[in-house]
Structures are given as structure tokens and as C-alpha cells.
């Protein structure tokens, strides 16, 4: 998350820190069947960023719409909060995807980021990923300036890609 925080600080001109609160992993088809996943029907504002290459899938940064608006305005200079939120979300997701891609030593190309407004499950299902796709969801706290915002950072990847990524991470930690 350090790479993402640095990228956000550079893009947004506000000192940013990101804290990981909890990480959960399951098959996309199992999302919402367990209370620990916090599944509900509340509308979230999300940024969806597809990526392809050896590491392929989609990333989603989602948060309460009011938090998204406040985060976009946290630098005090925001003519278009929706565009700013889209830019910030894409920046964070690209940095996280780049970190994973670096661990695999494989190039990854990001697609175009798009805004999603639906429930968390609706945003994830909008990717049309198969039910066996691995969902890694991390609850995070974003501190931008003097404001604190909670968000979910979700990655959807094929099981074989997650296995390769975990193997690469275990080698790099040794």
C-alpha cells in the first residue's frame, strides 16, 4: 500500500496514508454467503479498472458516496469531484496492480477506468467474471490530509494467477 499512498500523494498533492484493516479472500460465487464479507445492498461509489497480461483481472475501489466526494475534495481544489474520484481511484488501483505485476515480473496493461454506482456485489458482478474467479477484498482506511475515509479495495483474478502471485510473493519474502 506504500506505493499506492505515494502515487496518491503525488497525484493529489495531499499527504496520503493507507492502512489495511482486513483482507478476505473467496471465490466470487461465494461472496455474500458469509456474514464476514459484509455483504449488503447499500450503494457505493466505485472505480473499476480492468487489467490484462500475465496478471489479468479487474480492480475495484469502492466507498460510501459521501466519503468518495469528501476524498475527492480533500485538497480543496476540485472543480469536478467525480472526475477527481475516478482519477484517484484509478491511481490507487494502478499502483496496487503494478506492485503485484512487479512481484510476478510480468508486464501488465491497465484498461480504462470507469465509475460504478451500485451495491458492492453489483459492482463486482458487472465485470462478468466467472464464479470461480478469486476475490481478494481489503478494507482500508485512507488518510488524506486531516480526513479519514474507509474504502474496499477488491481484486478479481483467475485462480491460477493468484497461485502464481502467491508463489512469487513467497519467494520475494525469503
- Unreliably modeled segments: none
What is the number of strand segments?
7
Could you give the order of the helices and strands?
Answer: HEEEHHEEHEEH
What does the average pLDDT come to?
85
Write down the CATH class: Alpha Beta
Distance between the termini: 20 Å
Q: What does it look like?
A:
37% of the residues lie in helices and 35% in strands. A hairpin with a 2-residue loop joins strand 6 (134-144) and strand 7 (147-157). Strands 1, 2, 3, 4, 5, 6 and 7 form a seven-stranded antiparallel sheet that branches. The longest helix is centred in the middle third of the chain and has 24 residues, at 81-104. It has 174 residues and is α+β, with helices and mostly antiparallel strands. It contains five helices and seven strands, in the order H-E-E-E-H-H-E-E-H-E-E-H.
Can I get a quick summary?
The protein is α+β, with helices and mostly antiparallel strands and 174 residues long. Helices cover 37% and strands 35% of the residues.
Keywords:
alpha+beta, globular, 37% helix, seven-stranded antiparallel sheet
List the helices and strands and how they pair.
Layout: H1 2-12, E1 16-27, E2 43-53, E3 57-63, H2 65-72, H3 81-104, E4 108-110, E5 114-119, H4 120-125, E6 134-144, E7 147-157, H5 159-173
Antiparallel strand pairs: 1-6, 2-3, 2-4, 2-5, 3-7, 6-7
Amino acid at each position: 500500500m506504500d506505493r499506492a499512498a505515494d502515487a496518491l500523494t503525488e497525484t493529489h498533492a495531499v499527504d496520503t496514508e493507507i492502512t489495511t484493516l482486513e483482507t478476505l479472500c473467496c471465490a466470487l460465487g461465494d461472496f455474500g454467503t458469509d456474514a464476514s464479507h459484509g455483504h449488503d445492498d447499500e450503494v457505493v461509489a466505485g472505480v473499476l479498472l480492468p487489467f490484462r497480461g500475465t496478471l489479468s483481472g479487474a480492480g475495484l475501489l469502492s466507498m460510501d458516496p459521501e466519503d468518495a466526494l469528501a476524498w475527492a475534495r480533500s485538497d480543496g481544489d476540485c472543480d469536478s469531484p467525480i472526475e477527481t474520484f475516478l482519477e484517484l481511484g484509478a491511481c490507487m488501483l494502478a499502483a496496487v496492480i503494478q506492485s503485484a505485476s512487479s512481484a510476478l515480473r510480468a508486464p501488465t496493461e491497465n484498461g480504462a477506468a470507469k465509475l460504478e454506482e451500485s451495491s458492492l456485489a453489483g459492482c463486482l458482478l458487472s465485470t462478468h467474471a466467472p464464479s470461480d474467479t478469486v476475490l481478494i477484498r481489503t478494507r482500508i482506511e485512507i488518510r488524506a490530509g486531516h480526513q479519514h475515509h474507509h474504502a474496499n479495495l477488491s481484486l478479481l483474478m483467475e485462480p491460477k494467477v493468484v497461485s502464481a502471485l502467491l508463489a512469487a510473493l513467497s519467494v520475494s519474502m525469503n
